[in-house]
Amino acid sequence: MKLVGLLCHTLYTHSRSFFVTLTMKLVGLLSAILYTRIAVLFSHANDEISGSVNCHTLYTHRRSFSRANDGISGSVKCHTLYTHSRYFSHANDKIRGSVTCHNLYTHSPVFSHANDEISVSVKCHTLYTHSRSFSHANDEISGSVKCHNLYTHSRSSSHANDEIRGSVKCHTLYTHSRSFSHANDEISGSVKCHTLYTHSRSFCHANDEISGSVKCHTLYTHSRSFCHANDEISGSVKCHTLYTHSRSFSHANAEISGAVLFSNANDEISGSVKCHTLYTHSRSFCHANDEISGSVKCHTLYTHSRSFSHANDEISGSVKCHTLYTHSRSFSHANAEISGSVKCHTLYTHSRSFSRANDEINGSVKCHTLYTHSRSFCHANDEISESVKCHTLYTHSRSFSRGNDEISVTVKCHTLYTHSRSFSHANDEISGSVKCHTLYTHSRSFSHANDGISGSVMPYSIYA
C-alpha cells in the first residue's frame, strides 16, 4: 500500500473473522475505509504510508486484532491506539516525524506493543494497564524523555529491550502481580533512580547493562522464583545487592569490574568432556550461557520438574548426541548454535509448554524434527543455510506460533499443520525453490503476515 496524501485511513471491525489481502497502488486516495462484521480475526499487515496523515486511528472491540509493520515516514498529529477487547497487537511501529500524543491505553486481558521506535522528542510516552497481560518490547527512544513510567497491577508485565540514550529523570517499574519481566535494559546516560521491586511469584531481569553511574541498583524478591542474568556493570556501583528468600535463585554471568558481592557465572570448558550431564528433579532449573569449545560425547539434559531453562548453548565442536527430553510443564531452549555436524538433533515434549527460539544450524542435519502434543508450541527464527531432508512441524494443540522462518536453500517438505484454535505464521521468507509450502488450519483464528517468496513455488495454498 503506497498512499500519498491520505487524509483518513480508518479501520473498524466488530466481528469474529476477517481476512483481507489488499494490494493498492493509488496516488491521491482520499479515504479507504473497510467494515466487516464477521468473526474473531482481523489482520492488516505491511501498511506503508509515505505521505502526511491527519488521523491514523485504530479502534477495535472484538476478540482479536493484529496490525503489523506499520511504517509512517510523514508527520502524525494523533497516533492513538485504544482497545477494550481481549487481544490487541500493534507491532513494528516506526514514526520518523513529530508526535504530539503517543499514548497507549488498555483495560483488557492481553496487550502487546512491540518494536516502537521514536527518533524525535516525546512529551508524554506513558503506558498504563490494569489487566492480565502487558507487553511493551523493543522501545527505543533517542531523544529526551520527561516521564517514561510503567505501572501495572495485573498478573503479567513484560518490558523488553528498553534502550534510552538521553537523560531520564524517573525510570521506575512497579509491579504487585504474579509475573514481571524486564529484559535487556541498556541505559547509557545518568539514572537517578533505577529500582525494581516485586512481591509476586516470578521475577526476571536479564541482560542489564549500565555504563554510567548508578546510585541505587537493587533487586528485591520474596517470592518463589528469581532470575537475574547477564548483569554487566562497567561503572561505579554503590549498592548492588541481591536478596532472595524463596525456593529458587539463579544469578548467571555477573561481570562487575569493581567490587563483587556475589558471583556464580560463565561455565566455560575448553578441553574435552566425556560426560557433561545435568540432572534435576526439583521445581526450578536454570543453566545459562554454557560454552563448550572442545569435543563432547554426551551432552544431555534431563528434567522431570515443572520448570527448565537452558539458554545460549554454543557448541563449536562435534556432537554425537545432543538431545533434550522433558516431560514437565515448561521447557525453554533458546539460542542453540551448532556449527559442526549433528547426527540426531531432536526435541520431544509432551507437556503443556514448549519454546525453542533462534535455532541456527550451519551444517547438515539429517533429522531436524519437532513434535508436540501439548497446549503451546513456539519455534521462532529458524535459520537453516544447508539442505534439510525433513523439516516438518506438527501440532494438535491450542496454540501454535512459528515466526521469521528463513530458508535460503531447497526444502523438500516444508509443511505446517494445525487443528487448534490459534495459528500464526509471520514473516516467512523463502528465497529458494519450494515444492510444497502449504498451510492448513481448521481453527478460529489464522494470521499469515509478510509472506515474501522470491523463488518458484509449485503449490502455494492457504486453507482456512
Automatic annotation (TrEMBL):
Record protein name field: Uncharacterized protein
Provenance organism: Acanthosepion pharaonis (Pharaoh cuttlefish)
Lineage: Eukaryota, Metazoa, Spiralia, Lophotrochozoa, Mollusca
